[in-house]
Amino acid sequence: MASTDELAVLLAACARRDAQALERLYRLASPQLFAVALRILRVSHRAEEALQDGFIRIWQHAGEYRPERGAPLTWMASIVRYRALDLRRRDMAARVTYPGELDHFADDKPGPLLAAQSAAEARALERCLEHLEGKQRHCIMLAFYEGMSHAELSAHLHEKLGTVKSWIRRGLERLRTCLQE
What we know:
Blueprint: H1 4-15, H2 19-41, H3 44-61, H4 72-94, H5 112-116, H6 119-130, H7 134-145, H8 150-157, H9 161-180
């Protein structure tokens, strides 16, 4: 993994349109950024699309990166994350169905996400989620399963942004503690 300073230098070089710097930046940061997109989109080819679009935006806006505002990887992750969320929203809008339209596809088999997780881990997570307060659980579910940002959660729940951030932070801490037990 690259250092923060190295990534910042590469972003500055990208701002000067140094294609070799972009290539090195991609090699160093793409695994972490792909993981961000994959967590949101859950499909590798869509995550690859978000990553590619994200790097185009990183290239176009590299001159706007300000080290005093945060780490380079955080800045790039936010670009890829927003692109992935845009793609997810577009995918969801395209999947409008009508009641009964997909009934003939229904079965009792677990979906791909559940099949990929072990039953013990899924039960442990479910048990730990049940121990969270209602608002914490609701925020975490919307953030991680629906890809909603803190700002979107704040607007959706009609709560202050700081309150939503606190619910999520404390909820994640409780989940971590519960899952470690």
